Amino acid sequence: MAKEVEVILNLNEGVTEIIKSGLLKSCIEYLLYQRQQLPIPYHEVTRMVEQQESQDINAHVMERPGLRRSLNTEYKKAKKVYEDVECLFDNVNKLFMSTVVKSALVLLGSTPVSPKERYLLDFQNPEESNSLDISPRICNSSRRKLVRSLISNPDLGTFKDISPTSMFVFIQASRSSDLQWFRPKSTFKPPSRGQSCKISVRTAHSEQLSPTDFNKDEWMWFQAPVIVRAQFTCALIHNDSE
Q1: Which of 101, 102, 167, 188 could cysteine-pair with 228, CB 3.0–4.6 Å?
Q2: Could you tell me which of 191, 217, 175, 234 has the C-alpha nearest to residue 48?
Q3: Is residue 168, in this structure, part of any structural domain at all?
Q4: Separation of alpha carbons 219 and 63, rounded Å
Q5: Coil, helix or strand for 156?
Q6: What does DSSP assign to residue 36?
Q7: Burial class, 217, CB count within 10 angstroms (exposed 0-12 / middle 13-18 / buried 19+)
C-alpha cells in the first residue's frame, strides 16, 4: 500500500452542506488541472466552450480544411468534458441538499479497482451542520483555502505525474438515502492501490463535539454515473488565444 498523504483543512465556520458541495467541486477542479488531466484550469475550459458556443469555430480557419477538422475534433472533446463536469457538479449540489454525506472519494485511473491515485475528502462530523444560511463569500473562502492547502502541501508535490485517464467520483452517504442519480455500490470498498491523499475537514465547532459513534453498516458508497475523461490537446487553446 502506498503511503497516504493527509491534508488537514481547518475552517473557522461550520461546514454546511453548501460548503461540503463546494469543497468537493473545488477538489475535482484542482485535480483536473494539477494532475495533468486538463491542459488548462477548468474555469478556462468553461470560458472557452461558452465563448465558442457564441461564435463559429470555423469562421477564421475556413481556408485551412485540415486545421478546421482538427479544431472541430478537439472542440468536441473539450465540450464533452465541460458537459460531463457540469452535469456532475449539478448533481453534486442536489445530492448535498438531499442527504448527509460522510465522505467523498475521487479516483484517477482506468478502473476504480486499481486507480493511479485516490483522494478522500473526509467530513469529520457529517451531521455537524445542515444550515442553508451561508453567504457565498464564506463558501468561496472555504474553497480557496482548500486549494491553497493542496497546492502548498510538499508531500503532494512528490506525486509522480500521470497521463490523462478517467476520473471516478464516489459519495459515502446513508444507506437509506433516496438518491436518484448516484448509483448505489453496496459491495464497493475504497481501493488501496495508487498514490493516496486524505483531506480531513475540521472546524473549531467540530472539535468541541464528542466523536459520533457511527455504525459502519449505516453508510454506503454511491457512484456518479458520469466518468470524466479529460482528453484534449493544446491545439484548440492556442487557436482560441490567437
Answers
A1: 167
A2: 234
A3: yes
A4: 58
A5: helix
A6: T
A7: exposed
